[in-house]
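The pair is quoted verbatim below.
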Amino acid sequence: MDDDPPEGTRASEFSAIARWLKQSPTEGDAVLRGAGEDVAWIQAGEPLALSVDTLVDGVHFRRSWMPPEAVGWKAMTAALSDLAAARARPVGCLVALSAPALDSWTDAVMAGIAEAARRFGCPILGGDTTRSAVATVSVTVIGTGTPFGRSGAQVGDLVQLSGPTGLAARALRGLEAGQAVPADALLKPMPRLDLREALADATACIDLSDGLLADAGHLAEASAVQLVLDRAALQVEGVSEEDALAGGEDYELLATAPTPLAGFRVIGSVRAGSGLSFVDGSPLPDCRGWDHGA
Protein backbone atom coordinates (compact mmCIF):
# COMPACT_ATOMS: atom_id res chain seq x y z
CA MET A 1 0.00 0.00 0.00
CA ASP A 2 1.77 3.06 -1.25
CA ASP A 3 0.30 6.52 -1.69
CA ASP A 4 1.12 10.19 -1.31
CA PRO A 5 -1.52 11.49 1.17
CA PRO A 6 -2.38 15.13 1.86
CA GLU A 7 0.11 16.99 4.07
CA GLY A 8 -0.54 16.35 7.74
CA THR A 9 -2.04 12.87 7.35
CA ARG A 10 1.12 10.94 6.50
CA ALA A 11 1.82 9.58 9.99
CA SER A 12 -1.74 8.41 10.50
CA GLU A 13 -1.82 6.77 7.07
CA PHE A 14 1.32 4.73 7.56
CA SER A 15 0.46 3.83 11.14
CA ALA A 16 -2.92 2.61 9.84
CA ILE A 17 -1.24 0.49 7.16
CA ALA A 18 1.09 -0.97 9.79
CA ARG A 19 -1.92 -1.93 11.91
CA TRP A 20 -3.71 -3.49 8.95
CA LEU A 21 -0.74 -5.56 7.82
CA LYS A 22 -0.02 -6.76 11.35
CA GLN A 23 -3.46 -8.38 11.53
CA SER A 24 -3.48 -9.67 7.94
CA PRO A 25 -2.08 -12.83 6.36
CA THR A 26 0.82 -11.69 4.17
CA GLU A 27 2.75 -14.89 3.44
CA GLY A 28 1.98 -17.80 1.16
CA ASP A 29 3.57 -20.54 -0.89
CA ALA A 30 3.70 -18.35 -4.00
CA VAL A 31 4.78 -15.12 -2.27
CA LEU A 32 8.46 -14.25 -2.75
CA ARG A 33 8.31 -10.67 -1.45
CA GLY A 34 5.04 -9.39 -0.06
CA ALA A 35 3.47 -6.23 1.32
CA GLY A 36 5.62 -3.31 2.43
CA GLU A 37 7.56 -2.52 -0.75
CA ASP A 38 6.67 -0.81 -4.02
CA VAL A 39 5.66 -4.13 -5.58
CA ALA A 40 5.02 -7.67 -4.45
CA TRP A 41 6.72 -10.63 -6.10
CA ILE A 42 5.03 -13.99 -6.58
CA GLN A 43 6.23 -17.24 -8.14
CA ALA A 44 3.60 -19.08 -10.14
CA GLY A 45 4.28 -22.15 -12.27
CA GLU A 46 0.76 -22.12 -13.77
CA PRO A 47 -1.23 -19.55 -15.76
CA LEU A 48 -2.44 -16.61 -13.66
CA ALA A 49 -6.12 -15.71 -13.18
CA LEU A 50 -6.89 -12.12 -12.13
CA SER A 51 -10.11 -10.38 -11.14
CA VAL A 52 -11.14 -7.20 -9.31
CA ASP A 53 -14.29 -6.21 -7.43
CA THR A 54 -15.24 -2.84 -5.94
CA LEU A 55 -17.79 -1.94 -3.28
CA VAL A 56 -19.00 1.68 -3.13
CA ASP A 57 -20.83 3.29 -0.22
CA GLY A 58 -24.40 4.08 -1.27
CA VAL A 59 -24.32 1.63 -4.18
CA HIS A 60 -23.28 -1.74 -2.74
CA PHE A 61 -23.83 -1.03 0.93
CA ARG A 62 -25.03 1.54 3.44
CA ARG A 63 -23.30 2.07 6.76
CA SER A 64 -26.67 2.18 8.51
CA TRP A 65 -27.22 -1.56 7.94
CA MET A 66 -23.87 -3.06 6.93
CA PRO A 67 -21.16 -3.32 9.59
CA PRO A 68 -17.66 -2.38 8.39
CA GLU A 69 -16.33 -5.89 9.02
CA ALA A 70 -19.01 -7.18 6.64
CA VAL A 71 -18.00 -4.61 4.02
CA GLY A 72 -14.44 -5.92 4.13
CA TRP A 73 -15.48 -9.56 4.11
CA LYS A 74 -17.81 -9.03 1.18
CA ALA A 75 -15.24 -7.06 -0.85
CA MET A 76 -12.81 -9.95 -0.52
CA THR A 77 -15.28 -12.79 -1.06
CA ALA A 78 -16.95 -11.15 -4.07
CA ALA A 79 -13.57 -11.10 -5.81
CA LEU A 80 -12.74 -14.63 -4.67
CA SER A 81 -16.05 -15.82 -6.12
CA ASP A 82 -14.73 -14.96 -9.58
CA LEU A 83 -11.75 -17.24 -8.94
CA ALA A 84 -14.15 -19.98 -7.80
CA ALA A 85 -16.04 -19.75 -11.09
CA ALA A 86 -12.76 -19.89 -13.00
CA ARG A 87 -11.67 -23.05 -11.14
CA ALA A 88 -8.62 -21.10 -9.92
CA ARG A 89 -6.69 -21.42 -6.65
CA PRO A 90 -6.07 -18.12 -4.79
CA VAL A 91 -2.43 -17.08 -4.33
CA GLY A 92 -2.77 -13.45 -3.21
CA CYS A 93 -4.64 -10.16 -3.45
CA LEU A 94 -4.21 -6.38 -3.59
CA VAL A 95 -6.49 -4.04 -1.60
CA ALA A 96 -7.35 -0.43 -2.46
CA LEU A 97 -9.26 1.43 0.26
CA SER A 98 -10.58 5.00 -0.03
CA ALA A 99 -12.54 6.77 2.69
CA PRO A 100 -13.16 10.24 4.17
CA ALA A 101 -10.86 9.33 7.10
CA LEU A 102 -8.63 6.53 8.34
CA ASP A 103 -10.45 5.70 11.53
CA SER A 104 -12.10 2.87 13.44
CA TRP A 105 -14.44 2.24 10.49
CA THR A 106 -11.59 1.64 8.04
CA ASP A 107 -9.76 -0.45 10.66
CA ALA A 108 -12.86 -2.66 10.92
CA VAL A 109 -13.17 -2.92 7.12
CA MET A 110 -9.59 -4.15 6.96
CA ALA A 111 -10.29 -6.59 9.79
CA GLY A 112 -13.08 -8.09 7.67
CA ILE A 113 -10.78 -8.31 4.66
CA ALA A 114 -8.07 -9.95 6.77
CA GLU A 115 -10.56 -12.49 8.18
CA ALA A 116 -11.66 -13.55 4.70
CA ALA A 117 -8.10 -13.58 3.38
CA ARG A 118 -7.08 -15.91 6.20
CA ARG A 119 -10.19 -18.10 5.86
CA PHE A 120 -9.67 -18.70 2.13
CA GLY A 121 -5.88 -18.78 1.97
CA CYS A 122 -5.37 -15.54 0.01
CA PRO A 123 -2.43 -13.50 1.39
CA ILE A 124 -2.61 -9.70 1.17
CA LEU A 125 0.27 -8.61 -1.06
CA GLY A 126 -0.20 -4.84 -0.77
CA GLY A 127 -2.44 -2.15 -2.24
CA ASP A 128 -3.24 1.52 -1.90
CA THR A 129 -5.10 3.91 0.37
CA THR A 130 -6.46 7.38 -0.45
CA ARG A 131 -8.69 10.05 1.03
CA SER A 132 -12.08 10.22 -0.70
CA ALA A 133 -15.48 11.76 -0.07
CA VAL A 134 -17.08 8.36 -0.75
CA ALA A 135 -15.83 5.14 0.78
CA THR A 136 -14.78 2.49 -1.74
CA VAL A 137 -13.10 -0.87 -1.26
CA SER A 138 -11.46 -2.64 -4.20
CA VAL A 139 -9.89 -6.08 -4.04
CA THR A 140 -7.85 -7.55 -6.88
CA VAL A 141 -7.33 -11.29 -6.54
CA ILE A 142 -4.70 -13.44 -8.21
CA GLY A 143 -5.10 -17.16 -8.72
CA THR A 144 -3.54 -20.01 -10.63
CA GLY A 145 -4.94 -22.88 -12.64
CA THR A 146 -5.87 -23.99 -16.13
CA PRO A 147 -7.74 -21.37 -18.20
CA PHE A 148 -11.48 -21.97 -17.85
CA GLY A 149 -14.54 -19.74 -17.92
CA ARG A 150 -18.03 -19.16 -19.25
CA SER A 151 -17.52 -19.84 -22.97
CA GLY A 152 -17.36 -23.64 -23.26
CA ALA A 153 -20.96 -24.85 -22.79
CA GLN A 154 -21.92 -27.55 -25.30
CA VAL A 155 -25.29 -28.57 -26.71
CA GLY A 156 -26.56 -31.48 -24.62
CA ASP A 157 -24.89 -30.32 -21.40
CA LEU A 158 -26.84 -30.09 -18.16
CA VAL A 159 -27.26 -26.65 -16.57
CA GLN A 160 -26.43 -26.94 -12.87
CA LEU A 161 -26.62 -24.69 -9.80
CA SER A 162 -24.57 -24.95 -6.60
CA GLY A 163 -27.11 -23.53 -4.15
CA PRO A 164 -30.24 -21.44 -3.52
CA THR A 165 -30.63 -17.96 -4.96
CA GLY A 166 -32.51 -14.89 -3.75
CA LEU A 167 -31.52 -15.12 -0.08
CA ALA A 168 -29.28 -12.03 -0.27
CA ALA A 169 -32.00 -10.01 -2.00
CA ARG A 170 -34.54 -11.07 0.61
CA ALA A 171 -32.18 -10.01 3.39
CA LEU A 172 -31.52 -6.66 1.70
CA ARG A 173 -35.21 -5.88 1.50
CA GLY A 174 -35.60 -6.66 5.18
CA LEU A 175 -32.62 -4.59 6.29
CA GLU A 176 -33.72 -1.61 4.22
CA ALA A 177 -37.13 -1.86 5.91
CA GLY A 178 -35.53 -1.94 9.36
CA GLN A 179 -36.60 -5.54 10.01
CA ALA A 180 -34.65 -8.11 11.98
CA VAL A 181 -33.96 -10.75 9.34
CA PRO A 182 -31.37 -13.53 8.80
CA ALA A 183 -28.73 -11.62 6.86
CA ASP A 184 -25.65 -13.86 6.58
CA ALA A 185 -26.41 -14.49 2.89
CA LEU A 186 -26.01 -10.76 2.27
CA LEU A 187 -23.45 -9.73 4.90
CA LYS A 188 -21.19 -12.79 4.92
CA PRO A 189 -21.41 -14.58 1.55
CA MET A 190 -19.24 -17.64 0.96
CA PRO A 191 -17.28 -17.95 -2.30
CA ARG A 192 -17.65 -21.51 -3.58
CA LEU A 193 -13.95 -22.27 -3.70
CA ASP A 194 -14.86 -25.61 -2.14
CA LEU A 195 -16.25 -26.72 -5.51
CA ARG A 196 -13.03 -26.37 -7.51
CA GLU A 197 -12.49 -30.13 -7.80
CA ALA A 198 -16.18 -30.74 -8.50
CA LEU A 199 -15.85 -28.46 -11.55
CA ALA A 200 -13.18 -30.69 -13.13
CA ASP A 201 -15.68 -32.03 -15.68
CA ALA A 202 -17.55 -28.75 -16.22
CA THR A 203 -17.54 -27.14 -19.65
CA ALA A 204 -18.41 -23.61 -18.47
CA CYS A 205 -19.13 -21.75 -15.24
CA ILE A 206 -20.09 -18.31 -13.93
CA ASP A 207 -20.65 -16.95 -10.43
CA LEU A 208 -24.04 -15.41 -9.67
CA SER A 209 -23.38 -11.80 -8.70
CA ASP A 210 -25.85 -9.91 -10.90
CA GLY A 211 -28.79 -12.33 -10.64
CA LEU A 212 -29.41 -15.84 -11.89
CA LEU A 213 -31.07 -14.88 -15.18
CA ALA A 214 -28.59 -12.08 -15.89
CA ASP A 215 -25.56 -14.28 -15.33
CA ALA A 216 -27.12 -17.27 -17.11
CA GLY A 217 -27.59 -14.93 -20.06
CA HIS A 218 -23.90 -13.97 -19.93
CA LEU A 219 -22.89 -17.64 -20.03
CA ALA A 220 -25.29 -18.40 -22.89
CA GLU A 221 -23.95 -15.47 -24.91
CA ALA A 222 -20.30 -16.33 -24.28
CA SER A 223 -20.90 -19.97 -25.29
CA ALA A 224 -23.20 -19.14 -28.23
CA VAL A 225 -25.89 -21.52 -26.98
CA GLN A 226 -29.36 -21.43 -25.44
CA LEU A 227 -29.96 -22.32 -21.80
CA VAL A 228 -33.36 -23.90 -21.22
CA LEU A 229 -34.23 -23.64 -17.52
CA ASP A 230 -36.78 -25.46 -15.37
CA ARG A 231 -38.74 -22.64 -13.73
CA ALA A 232 -40.07 -24.94 -10.99
CA ALA A 233 -36.52 -26.01 -10.06
CA LEU A 234 -35.57 -22.38 -9.46
CA GLN A 235 -38.12 -21.74 -6.72
CA VAL A 236 -36.69 -21.22 -3.23
CA GLU A 237 -38.85 -21.60 -0.13
CA GLY A 238 -39.57 -18.24 1.52
CA VAL A 239 -38.11 -16.28 -1.40
CA SER A 240 -40.10 -14.46 -4.07
CA GLU A 241 -39.59 -15.62 -7.65
CA GLU A 242 -38.27 -12.18 -8.59
CA ASP A 243 -35.57 -12.35 -5.90
CA ALA A 244 -34.66 -15.95 -6.80
CA LEU A 245 -34.32 -15.16 -10.50
CA ALA A 246 -32.94 -11.62 -10.41
CA GLY A 247 -31.85 -10.73 -6.88
CA GLY A 248 -28.09 -10.96 -7.32
CA GLU A 249 -25.15 -11.20 -4.90
CA ASP A 250 -25.79 -14.90 -4.26
CA TYR A 251 -22.23 -15.93 -5.25
CA GLU A 252 -23.38 -19.45 -6.02
CA LEU A 253 -22.02 -21.05 -9.20
CA LEU A 254 -23.93 -21.79 -12.40
CA ALA A 255 -22.16 -24.47 -14.42
CA THR A 256 -22.66 -26.68 -17.46
CA ALA A 257 -21.39 -30.23 -17.81
CA PRO A 258 -22.32 -33.41 -19.70
CA THR A 259 -23.01 -35.23 -16.41
CA PRO A 260 -24.20 -34.18 -12.93
CA LEU A 261 -21.53 -32.47 -10.80
CA ALA A 262 -21.04 -33.20 -7.09
CA GLY A 263 -22.49 -30.37 -5.00
CA PHE A 264 -24.73 -29.11 -7.81
CA ARG A 265 -28.35 -29.73 -8.80
CA VAL A 266 -29.62 -29.86 -12.37
CA ILE A 267 -31.89 -26.94 -13.33
CA GLY A 268 -31.96 -27.19 -17.13
CA SER A 269 -30.15 -28.11 -20.30
CA VAL A 270 -28.12 -26.59 -23.11
CA ARG A 271 -29.62 -26.46 -26.60
CA ALA A 272 -28.68 -24.97 -29.93
CA GLY A 273 -29.75 -21.36 -30.25
CA SER A 274 -29.22 -18.27 -28.13
CA GLY A 275 -30.37 -16.63 -24.92
CA LEU A 276 -32.60 -18.12 -22.24
CA SER A 277 -35.96 -19.85 -22.15
CA PHE A 278 -38.08 -21.84 -19.73
CA VAL A 279 -38.78 -25.49 -20.47
CA ASP A 280 -42.53 -24.95 -19.95
CA GLY A 281 -42.59 -22.16 -22.54
CA SER A 282 -43.59 -19.45 -20.05
CA PRO A 283 -42.24 -15.95 -20.75
CA LEU A 284 -39.12 -14.66 -19.04
CA PRO A 285 -39.77 -11.94 -16.43
CA ASP A 286 -38.95 -8.35 -17.31
CA CYS A 287 -36.54 -8.04 -14.39
CA ARG A 288 -33.42 -10.06 -15.23
CA GLY A 289 -30.89 -8.73 -12.67
CA TRP A 290 -28.47 -5.95 -11.81
CA ASP A 291 -26.93 -3.71 -14.45
CA HIS A 292 -24.67 -0.82 -13.33
CA GLY A 293 -25.18 0.88 -16.67
CA ALA A 294 -28.98 0.84 -16.49
About this structure: Helices lie at 10-22, 68-85, 104-119, 167-176, 184-187, 212-223, 241-246. Residues 2-11 have pLDDT under 50 and may be disordered.
